[in-house]
Amino acid sequence: MTRAPTMPLLSAADPLPYHILPAREESPFVMISDHAGQAVPSSLRDMGVPPQAWERHIAYDIGIKEVGRHLQNALGCLLIEQVYSRLVIDCNRAAGHPTSIPPVSDGTAIAGNQNLSQQERYAREEEILHAYHDEIERHLAQRDKGEFLFVSLHSFTPAMEGGEPRPWEIGLLHDHDPHSARLMRTLLEAEGGLCVGDNQPYVLNSHNEYSVPYHAGRRQLPALEIEIRQDLISDDAGQRAWAERLARLLPLLWAQRKERA
Ligand SMILES: [Zn+2]
């Protein structure tokens, strides 16, 4: 990957772009959480975004950091979280994608993303987007020999601005590995009363998204992207309940995959 020289974006006062929760043991899961974070580089100040907007889904995936941490604790697997807000740069988009550094998000104009210079874009790409994905690559390279499921965690808003309510409690997104999604869907539906989206509310492909195609699709690794509706995981009880459910079902999914392989 060619990298243009940049003006530094992050300073010593800013956190690293990724947060690692290491595996406790050999685990068949590697998890990532692209939209866990709400941090903003201090040099960008508030990006001209009103305080209440930082608490909305446009800034991060509400509830998913907590679900991911409970799940990581239960499964003992590696979890890599993105630390910066998706309004700074969306780490589930390729560099240069129209919504990578969104000038508008769900009807809210992001003043700090208007009329950026090429240097300012490169700085966000290099220091946040590529730094995060390089870290994921480093961990995957260490794991290349063993088999594992690459799990990407997200949450979705119950309705976009002016849009229809979304009926799914959970969505399973897939592209190169429909098999894992199919098995997980059957397991979730056996729980009773769950509306499970199949490539809903989003379709996973290499144009719409980045992390799963880039890391797992390219290697043909078993992979699953999980999207949980945000109203279900906006409090501690919901976060724990969904983590408990996934911690129970993911090992069953993996066992079934191995059996039928
Ligand atoms: Zn997300």
UniProtKB/TrEMBL annotation:
Q: Which Pfam families match?
A: FGase (PF05013)
Q: Do you know which Gene3D superfamilies this protein is assigned to?
A: Zn-dependent exopeptidases
Q: Which InterPro entries match?
A: N-FG_amidohydro, UCP029730
What the entry lists under SUPFAM superfamilies is as follows: Zn-dependent exopeptidases
Superkingdom is Bacteria
This one is known as N-formylglutamate amidohydrolase
Source species of the chain:
Bombella pollinis
